[in-house]
Every structure is written in C-alpha cells, then in structure tokens.
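Structure tokens please, single chain.
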Amino acid sequence: MSERDGTRQPASAPEGWIRSRWTRLNGPRRIAGVDLARGLAVIGMFAAHLLWIDEPFDWGDASTWVAVVEGRSSILFATLAGVSIGLATGGRTPPVGDALTTARLRLLVRAILLWVIGVLLILTGVPVYVILPAYALLFFLAVPLVPLGARILLPLAGVLAVVLPVIQVALDDLPMWRTASGNALSLAIGYHYPFTTWIVFVVAGLGVARAGILRLRVQLSMLAAGTALALVGYGLEAATGVAEENERASYVGALWTARPHSTGLLEVIGSGGFALAVIAACLLVCRTVVVWPVLPLRAVGAMPLTAYVGQIVVWALIATEVLGAPGDLAAFRDLEPFWPLALVTIAVCTAWALLVGRGPLEWVVDTSSKLVTAGRARPASPGPVD
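Here you go.
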C-alpha cells in the first residue's frame, strides 16, 4: 500500500508506454477515491439525463432507487470541483506569494474555457441544462478562497449553507427569469445550478481538501459528518416538508424542501452531506482491493470533462441522425440510450487512460492555463495532483 494515501498499488505493471500510463492512473500522484467519486458523478448525470425517472427516491421502494441520481449527481460534481481546486493548489498547504497569483490565474483561465465549452454545448440544442457555465462561475468565485485553510473554509461552508438558500428563494422569484432575455441569461450562467448557492459545495470541497483529504481520520470524519447532514436534511424533509406542488405557495415552502434542484435549505444540507459521504466512502473503498475492480470508473473520473462533453456531442449526433433533431428529450429517452452511452464511455475512457493518458479536453484546459502563466512561479503542489 502507498504510505502517502493508503491506496493499494500493483506489484507489477506492463512495460514501456503502457506502464507509464498505468502509473499515471494508479500512482501516488492521483487519488483513486476522488477519481472514483467523479466517475460516479459523471455516470449519475448520464442517468439523470437519459433515464425516465418518474418517482421520487424512496428508501423503502427499490424501484425508485435510480432517482438518487437526480440533483445529487450534479451536487457531487460541484463538491468535487472544490476538492480538485484544493488539490491543485497545494492540498493542505495553500499557496502564497507568486505561487498564489499563478494558481489564481490558472483558475481564471480554466473558468473561461469551461464557460466557452459550456456555451458551445448549449448551442448543440441537446435538451439538458448544461452544468459547465455554472461550473465556470464557481471557479471564478473560488479564486479569492484559494489562500484560505480548512479552519476558515469549513465553518464558512456551514454558515453559507444556512444563509444562501434564504436569499436564493428571493432571487428565484425575480420577474426577470420569466422573460426571454432572463431565460437566455439563465442558460448562459447555468442558473439551473445557481452559483449564488452552489458555491457552498465548492467551499465545502475546498475545505476538506485543505483539511487533508488523504488522511484516514479526515475521511472517517467526512463520512460521519456527511451521513449526519444527509439524515438531518432528508429526515426533516420527510417529517415536515410540503408537497412539491405547494412549495411555491409560500416563501417557507420554497425554502423548506429537499426536492432535487430546488436549492432549498434542506436540499443544500441533505445533498451536500450526501456528496461528502460519497466522496469519503470512495476514498475509504479505494484503500482496499476494490480499487482495482473499479478502475474503469476511475478512468472516467480521471477525464470527467471529456466524458461529459462527449456524451452531449454523441447525443446531438445520434438524435439528429435518428430523430431528425436533437431537441426531443422524450423521443431520445425512448431509444433507451443510457446503457450504450454509459458503457461505451467507460470503455473508451479506460482505453484512453491506459493507452494515451490524460483526457483530451483535460489536456487542452490544463495546457492552456499553464501557457498563460508560463514563467511565473508554480502553485504549491507537494502531494498528489488532480
């Protein structure tokens, strides 16, 4: 086992080029548990896009369990954004001086590129709420948070989780969102995933990265805290929440809900806790031999941008060819595309990771951010990178 992160490493690996790719995916410079969590988030978003999910999630009814992907997959993805930012900017040791300036510039470049890619995906006409514009804005908002440590970030996440949903209800009621220009703005900034509240998840993810996400004690604490938050959020929803059709009847109804994509207080608490628990569980699982059977999912998580963009581009191409246009969501779901797209994505990402290396879009974004900051001090990164 690796002394650094507790994940198991292979006794031997293929020679030459393949060995170098194998080492890149499985060596101490990558965190297997984070890749696994990202892989699950990506496949979860595939499921939310492509499957018919008619009933809300209910622990007591196994036929509804697939609904766990709704809302929670994208929140997991946002929380992992914070984790990734933390790992890429020094882990437990925030950058200072020129290294801090470089880290911030690279984040800004990544944000711009993600926004451009997101807008291009919207223009394909595929009928999904593209998360990348919101992701880009979250990266912008994370820029001033980079030098902060866990002792500030984690309490800050807690305060924001309580305060921002209260404000979000009022923001959602602004008349502008019901106009054509407001709808266009909503798409351009990914307001289905409102950065005005979703920054909570990024702050929480950055906070656990700064706390030392590779430490067993931190992983166990994350699992316990995340599970407790999920139980509180979903438990209060079950005990005191109102029916979905009555949520908008009052300010309190809109606030006091855990319904997916509501950005209600109970969703932020419950689904935020769920995301932390999933990340912790993945990190703990990857301390065991299970790290090897889940390698294909880890490969997807090592190139999540490529996998996400690839899904939407392939969707647009297939729907245009088969249906004549990409905009009919019901007709495309009726083609039952989830399993073919998910399995092909997993297979292609695994082959690419083992034969080529870094995902193509990940390479473009990372290389571009480095070119912009060429000649400046490198961000502190004493441990694994992401």
